[in-house]
Amino acid sequence: MPDAPAPAAADSPVRRVLGAAVEALGGEQRDGQVAMAEAVATAMSDEQHLLVQAGTGTGKSLAYLVPSLMHRERVVVATATLALQNQLVERDIPRLVEALKDTPGVDTSYAVLKGRSNYACLHRIREGVPDDQGALVELPEGSQGKKILELRAWAEKEAESGGSGERDAAPRHTDKDWRQVSVGHRDCLGASKCPFGQECFVELAREKAHRSHLVITNHSLLAIDAIEGVPMIPDYDVVVIDEAHELTARVTQAATDELFAADVERAARRSQRYVEGPQADDLADSASALRDALSQGTPGRFERVPEEISDALQLIRDAARACLSAYPKGDSDADGDAGRTQARGSVQEVFVTAERMAAGSDADVMWLTEGTERMPPRLCVAPLQVWGQMRDKLLTDKTVVMTSATLMLGGDFSAVASNVGLKPSERVLGDGPVSDDEAALPWVGMDVGSPFDYGQQAILYVARHLPPPGRDGLAQAQIDEIVELVDAAEGRTLGLFSSRRAADAAAAAVRERLPHLTTLAQGEAQLPELAKQFVSDPHTCLFGTLSLWQGLDVPGETCQLVLIDRIPFPRPDDPLMSARQKAADKAGGNGFMQVAATHAALLLAQGAGRLIRTTTDRGVVAVLDPRLATARYGGFLKASLPPMWTTTDPAVVRKALKRLAGG
């Protein structure tokens, strides 16, 4: 069982401030929220790591923001998704600051830090966008040209008014539009060399962060700053990681590199006007060697890198190094030659990636993707594990509070703790002693529960009578079951599927057999538009894949049935997951349980969590995979879910859905 929340002192400072904040915001105090706030304050003052599971509806944002504002040093809050970051910045923190602005001992200054490409670039807007040879690109004609002009005008107004220049505040646009008014780190000149450095939105955001007590950022930027050692965030004492179940995936993503033959060619072309010798041409030749090698390669993970690809990588590495050395010495960038800085930066990026891939480190996993009509094959490299880097470069130096609604997998914190770099043996239980080992990183695990009564509000239905899912998509028996459940619920269904093909097949069947209902499928419109339509009419179904499993919040009668077609194990051919599973087996562990089952448990818990979002919600989570009831690992997976009332009887579930649909 999880640790019970320790009773908090009735007059503790954090309890008083939290109470004042809740009262000012018109909310009601919850025991789990108070217990969490007390635990976060204790972790910060004692410099001890904390993992706290806080179910939906606990009010966990307030529970960590209040002690963060009261802490003596700067605190960083890192989220996984832009949706939560925007909720904190646009709603939670401004309201909290207003409520606590006159409270003694509370520093309410805060700032937001995002990656460079999330801000408009004044240099690109005012000087234009260079092509691969460095010549300025003409503004495109038609609707895109008008949209870029609109974005430019917006950015100028932001600069005049002292606005943030953040993408989220910009007029509606596409990714392609935004790339015309922003730059990544590679193409940035740097504040000292850019003629608009004093006005730069990124630099102004960093300056504000240096003046602020609370800094809101994301997992990726945190990883770049703490783990890769690239200074992005001002010095801080504590980091609160919300949506912590996503942390290892986001850190892995930040540490993953890709290499296209086209990347190398582009770097070579951009270098040709700055490098007088043959080095740029040699780099272009190495790109051709890579393209030829990739065309002969077999997609998938490399146990051993094929000789042709290895040779091509070494050729690119050496050619890129020579090209970098051939760039003219001196600071010609001071004359405003942005193209030179950006061209050299592209070669530097190619060199670093090729050098990493050519090294063939056992700490990395490398694979070749399958090419498509729109995307040529590319090489990818990712760390085999990230817990070691997190332990050495984040957990050893900072106090870390991790929170999520899903941190206990299989009913325990051990799986998540191990993946982020904390050892189960280092956990402090109750009033037990802290380890005398100086290298140990003591941590506390705490479950503050949920205000929801899952046993009364939700049914977990496992379709035990169905055949196990196969590799060929949905079987007819599963499709029949989906139609019967959706019919009983009269719509009101969120379908979470393991593949786009399965989601589309289910949507097609429901449209054909239940034409009186509205059936939406992911990909038919932007997700916010689909969600809006789903919420507006209860007689609607929304079927989709991964982004719906974790990112959708639809309380009320809109969603009374969550369908899950199969246990979301990683694909057997997933290069990184298969490598991690094999490494765990080799180390004497159980790779399936440590990697595949843990991954599935996390996604299953997130998917099931879409159902109950308020104390008045009612409904069914229907898992159409009998293995949840029959397989040995089923107990581990079910223990990761909220404590719903469980049945395998389809008649019972259909009756329950009809009662709910009837009001």
Automatic annotation (TrEMBL):
Required cofactor names: [4Fe-4S] cluster
What is the enzyme's class at the highest EC level?
isomerase
**What reaction is this protein's catalytic activity?**
ATP + H2O = ADP + phosphate + H(+)
Q: State the protein's name.
A: ATP-dependent helicase DinG
Alphabetical list of InterPro entries matching this protein: ATP-dep_Helicase_C, DEAD/DEAH_box_helicase_dom, DinG/Rad3-like, Helic_SF1/SF2_ATP-bd_DinG/Rad3, Helicase_ATP-bd, P-loop_NTPase
Query: What molecular function terms (GO) are annotated for this protein?
Result: 5'-3' DNA helicase activity; ATP binding; hydrolase activity, acting on acid anhydrides, in phosphorus-containing anhydrides; nucleic acid binding
An example GO biological process term is: nucleobase-containing compound metabolic process
* E.C. no: 5.6.2.3
Q: Which organism is it from?
A: Nocardioides psychrotolerans
